[in-house]
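seq:
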Amino acid sequence: MSIKRIDYKEAREYYIKGEGDEYPSLYDVAREFKYSLSTLRKKAANEGWLKKRKERISLQETMEMRKEFMGKATKLSNVAFNAISAAEYIIGKIKEEQNDIENGKKAFDVNIASKQIWSLNQAMSLVEKAQLTLDEIENGNMSPMSDIGFI
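struct:
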């Protein structure tokens, strides 16, 4: 006569995965599946159930952090593209003003030239900073782990 082995698979999954944000104790699992608590403790210890649960929780936290980061990276990319669009708009307006000056529709003076130079410098600075931000995101230099020194 052979001894029937108990299948702990369902109990193991329940203990490791839990339900939502709730994780049962071994006592709860033993009661739920009608197993001996001492036998279940030995089984859990031998198979490293607690370690697997902690790894799962850590993985879930990492995934949540990455999802949050990707949302922020997407928003940051949109801001960078909008900055580039704003710079292009400014440059376009300066070109229109230059055409008006060349066609005699507007008089040239030093104040206009100073304003245009300052505006072009600001627009180029905006483009450079936006491009650096996009490069950092694209090259992976901005990541959800970059600000976490303790991991």
